[in-house]
Design a protein that fits this description.
Structural class: alpha+beta
InterPro entries: Acyl_CoA_acyltransferase, Bact_Acetyltransf, GNAT_dom
Strand content: 25-35%
Keywords: Acyltransferase, Transferase
Number of domains: 1
Shape: globular
Strand order of the largest sheet: 1-2-3-4-5-7-6
Number of helices: 4
Protein name: GNAT family N-acetyltransferase
Order of helices and strands: EHHEEEHEHEE
Pfam family, one: Acetyltransf_1
CATH superfamily: Gcn5-related N-acetyltransferase (GNAT)
Length: 155
C-alpha cells in the first residue's frame, strides 16, 4: 500500500531545490528560452506564491505552486512529477489539491501556461480532465507561439 502526502514546502531543502533545477533544465531542453516561463527557486520564494511538495511513501515525487495575482485570479506554476513517478497519479492529486486550496482562498479563476508541443500533451489532457479550457494570455503574459493557455472558473 502506497501513501501519498502533500505538504506545504518552504523551499529550503536541497531535495526540492534539485527537483526544481531538473524541472528548469527540462523546460529549457524542450522549449525555446524566450518561451520558458518556469520559475527558479528564488522567484518562487515570494509572498504571493504558495508551494507544495508531494511525497510517495516518504520520497519526493512532485510539486506544484499557486500564484495569487489578485482580483480572484490564481495561476498554476511549477507543476512537475519526477519521471520515475509518472503514471502514479501524483500530478492528478497535486492539481486536485491546488484547486481545493484555490477555492478555499476564495479565488474565482485558475489559469496556467504550458507548452504546445507533444511533450506537453499529457499535461494538457490532465488539466482538461479537471475542466480547464483553452484561453488566451492572462496576467503579465503576452501572445507566445510556443505557449498554450488554459483557465478554469471556480465556483
Amino acid at each position: 500500500m502506497t501513501t501519498l502526502t502533500i505538504k506545504e514546502d518552504d523551499l529550503m531543502g536541497s531535495e526540492i531545490a534539485a527537483l526544481l533545477q531538473r524541472h528548469l533544465d527540462h523546460m529549457f531542453a524542450i522549449t525555446p528560452a524566450e518561451s520558458v516561463f518556469a520559475l527558479d527557486i528564488a522567484a518562487l520564494r515570494v509572498p504571493e506564491i504558495s508551494f507544495w511538495s508531494a511525497y510517495l511513501d516518504g520520497e519526493l515525487a512532485g510539486c506544484v505552486a499557486l500564484k495569487d495575482h489578485g482580483n480572484g485570479l490564481g495561476e498554476i506554476k511549477s507543476m512537475h512529477t519526477l519521471e520515475k513517478h509518472r503514471g502514479k497519479r501524483i500530478a492528478y492529486h497535486l492539481v486536485k489539491h491546488l484547486i481545493d486550496e484555490a477555492q478555499n482562498r476564495g479565488l474565482k479563476r485558475l489559469s496556467l501556461e504550458t507548452g504546445k508541443t507533444e511533450h506537453f500533451m499529457p499535461a494538457q489532457k490532465l488539466y482538461e480532465r479537471f475542466g480547464f479550457t483553452a484561453s488566451g494570455p492572462f496576467a503579465d503574459y503576452g501572445p507566445d507561439p510556443h505557449s498554450y493557455f488554459m483557465t478554469l472558473a471556480l465556483a
